[in-house]
Predict the 3D structure of the following.
Amino acid sequence: MSGGPIVVELLDRAGSVVARHRCIELPVRLGRAYDNEVIVDDPFVAPNHLRIERRANGELVAQDLGTRNGIYAVTARRWSPWQGAVKRSNEIVLTPDALVRAGHSTFRVRPIDQAVAPERLDTTAHAWEGWRPAMVAFAMLALLAMFNAWSADTTTQESFVYETSVALVVGVMLVWAGAWALLNRLFAGRARFGRHFLIGAVFIVAAFVTSLAAQLLAYAFSLGWATRFDSHVSLVLLSIAVYFHVATIKPLSMAFARRFAVAFALLAMGLFGLYRYATQQQFGDSLYMTSIQWPAIRMVTPVSTDAFVKEIADLKSRADLRRNDFAGGEEN
């Protein structure tokens, strides 16, 4: 590392920079005390933990100042179970990519002429923050709840039914968005509740529309398989929503958001499939259509009563034959 001023970068557990300290003169001390050039708020770091200085040959080194917890050379950018076994050292040679752990803090040292990547293209819709997405989400959920109540209501036609439906759907989504907003506040410094509320509302509407489309298709053309994996489709849509939630919290960690969403989808569908198989001896939803839609959309020709009775008789004959074969096998 060439001579001149240096920059000490403090990193979080994921390897992202959380603070930078420009140091003009060497040596530089790092610790919790206020007389250090780099102050670290870490109870496992000593008041004066280490000193960074330059050797005669131009190398930068970090030297332990006789602390309890010492300093360690970190072998990878991300934490792993093997990093705790890194050998403690009293002196570590610093390169631009060398990571050093002091207490629970990790840092690296870079020269001021270190090359940086160009800025990323900002595709964030900054106008969709705050109350605007929240109001759009509320309108979507209210319309969805009222349509669902209207399509299921065949007798009462009372406003209480619609008000209860709206309150239930909006209330559940407020809790869902509030949980993500809390995580956003903890990990990114701001809640972004409106954005999370809109993401949840879009998921609910998408899940409802896909489920309704599958039910209409199955009812209109007698395609029972169209609703066989309705719950799995909803879980895939939920995983997509989780991806956008995580990406909203950490917009610079899109790869992590994708991995998290894929893992969530595989785990959710696997657990649901195992549950269905344990309770119903099948991985999908019910083998029959559970909802009856408007008769006007029925496209297939109705089966006559005589044909239906004949099919039942044939089915009974096959069942009796299998029962007799089973009983005969037990006697033998």
Remarks:
- The chain has two domains: 6-111, 131-295.
